[in-house]
């Protein structure tokens, strides 16, 4: 029987971004621990929002601000997301993830600690394959960043590798330009909008996980998975 690799981006895809993405929220949380960085962090977030930082510049600053910060800050950042994002939105995703032919993956340019805390808070206890930047921890504090995602095409290569590993078709869901290569390499690509108008890069739009559930049912019936 064929499997379906379900490849999801993290920020903006697993949850809608309101004002700040998860890494910006974590940088803001770090001010509690490193008050002297407050002004620099606000400038860093402003520059990030305006797309002024190269990934290497972003990562170096992000690591310098977060290094030595208590890992509790990760959970505080994620809890902020759930102050505006209703966890009920994830019920459809849980039903999708419970299907025996689904092989779930999160392919993200974001941070593994934030992704894992999100999955825990959301009750998404499934066997995800995760590609993301890794924050090492020492004594309950964030320490160093390890860049597993060096190029946006890494998401595409990981998806192709997963498809081969599971002899699977692929459904990919993203929300922005860094997902383009992954979506292009997918059999069934979708842009998730969370009800907002956004650039879809020519891919089919879905509003939320309710719509994704319907799409996956259609795909599974087309390829006789159920
Ligand atoms: Mg995104």
From TrEMBL:
Transmembrane segments: none annotated. It comes from the Bacteria. Keywords: Hydrolase. GO terms for molecular function: hydrolase activity. This is Haloacid dehalogenase-like hydrolase. It comes from Candidatus Ornithospirochaeta avicola.
């Amino acid at each position: 029987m064929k499997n379906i690799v379900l490849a999801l981006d993290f920020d903006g895809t697993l949850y809608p971004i309101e004002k700040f993405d998860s890494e910006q929220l974590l940088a803001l949380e770090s001010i509690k621990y490193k008050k002297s960085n407050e002004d620099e962090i606000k400038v860093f977030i402003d520059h990030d929002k305006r797309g002024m930082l190269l990934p290497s510049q972003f990562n170096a600053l992000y690591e310098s601000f977060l290094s030595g910060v208590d890992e509790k800050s990760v959970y505080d950042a994620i809890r902020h997301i759930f102050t505006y994002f209703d966890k009920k939105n994830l019920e459809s995703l849980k039903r999708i993830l419970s299907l025996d032919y689904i092989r779930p993956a999160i392919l993200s340019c974001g941070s593994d600690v934030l992704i894992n805390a999100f999955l825990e808070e959301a009750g998404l206890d499934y066997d995800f394959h995760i590609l993301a930047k890794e924050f090492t921890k020492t004594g309950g504090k964030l320490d160093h960043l390890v860049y597993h995602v060096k190029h946006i095409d890494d998401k595409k290569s990981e998806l192709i590798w997963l498809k081969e590993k599971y002899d699977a078709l692929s459904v990919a869901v993203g929300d922005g330009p860094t997902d383009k290569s992954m979506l292009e390499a997918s059999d069934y690509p979708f842009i998730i909008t969370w009800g907002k108008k956004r650039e879809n890069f020519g891919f089919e739009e879905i509003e939320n996980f309710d719509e994704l559930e319907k799409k996956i049912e259609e795909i599974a019936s087309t390829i006789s998975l159920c």
